[in-house]
Amino acid sequence: MTVDIQNRLVKFKDLIPSEVPFVEGKLKGHQDRSNYSIVGPGVSEDTKQSVKIAEEHGFNIGAVRAAPMNGSGLHSHTTAEVFLIFSGSWRFYWGTEGKEGEVVCNAGDVASFPTNMFRGFQNVSDQDAHLFVVLGENDPGVITWTPSLLKKAKDSGMVLLDDNSLIDLDKNSIPEGKSAIKPIQDNELDKFDNYTSEEIEKFVIRAKDHDKYLQDDGHFNSNTILNYIDNFKIHEKDLSPLIEHNTGFGLTLLKGENSHIHPYTLAESEIFLCLEGEWEITCNDQKVIIGSKDTFSSPKNSTRSIKNISGKDGSVFIVRQKN
Length: 323
Description:
A hairpin with a 6-residue loop joins strand 7 (89-94) and strand 8. The chain has a 7-stranded antiparallel β-sheet with strand order 1-25-22-27-20-17-16, with no helix packed on it. It has 2 domains: 9-205, Jelly Rolls (Sandwich); 208-321, Jelly Rolls (Sandwich). The protein is built from 3 helices and 27 strands. It starts with 8 loop residues before the first strand and ends with a strand. It is mainly beta and 323 residues long.
């Protein structure tokens, strides 16, 4: 059966966001934010969150739009969380009180955060900004919030239930048979890991430093590659990762005015996510074009190729299933 690959093309402008995706959605600094689920449901607590591609890929991809000084409160994940900064400047901060350390990332930067640590992020630009998030595994689990955040959220009328669904007490009561999730105890906070800013900086690759990390695939000097996570093979050349995190997926950036990859077949899931430019993807003799913030999911076992058709420098992220 022929797969219509147009159904696997995700135009960012067509995505339907959740405006209150998490329990802290009514709190100052978290109100003006939109959450998008592109591949998989991610960790959204909004049971009505629109998911564009539900097929399991071995990872989840989502996006966030936030107004200035808005973002996510302190939380922890059980699987990998990697941020791809598309626009603006974002402050990442961590620790149970959010005072343990911080880094600021800008457009084109990539940051891979360890599991088992509390982190939050905030748009520190003077206008709306976007970032994308890649989460590990088909089921990335649920978020663990700090006890203080859950208390503030409850005071605002938002309660996270024990089935990980949200309820707004200003509109509804807690359904019979369900109860509010219990915050972790203070002694459990000691089980979470601690990091200095210098330690987290090792997991950040900045766009301004790309020249230090770019590799050439040896194919007529047409491609420059930043391979962030997991080994990546292109035109018979294997590239080692810049970040030593076991995420369950690979992450690579293909750059250049004439960048392209000749046809190849892959059994695993693979996503192309455009940072800038315009890219033509041929998949089983069908073609699609992606622009900035657009995504394409190649069917497993399909033969695909990609090339920059914008006539200027372009960049595209490649997320590839590992497990």
